[in-house]
Design brief:
76 residues
Length: 76
């Protein structure tokens, strides 16, 4: 996986979280829970923006896939 792919995966996860909260809202009648879901949804929008900002600063080689072998990682 490349660094760019990792950021794209993170962005996709944040968008899925946004969609979850947004799609649930019409079914929520408790005002406190509605407020909570709206706040959580809006936070996901901010997370997507933060990831996009970070992606814009990635180096040109961010799309190069990294080789990482768990068996060769240093022992902790």
């Amino acid at each position: 996986m490349s660094l760019l792919q990792a950021y794209e995966l993170a962005k996709s996860s944040e968008q899925k979280a946004y969609d979850f909260y947004d799609e649930a809202l019409p079914n929520i009648t408790d005002p406190d829970i509605r407020t909570l879901f709206m706040e959580l949804r809006d936070e996901e929008t901010e997370h997507v923006r933060m990831i996009e900002d970070a992606m814009a600063k990635l180096p040109p080689n961010a799309n190069v896939e990294l080789d990482f072998d768990v068996d060769e990682s240093p022992a902790l």
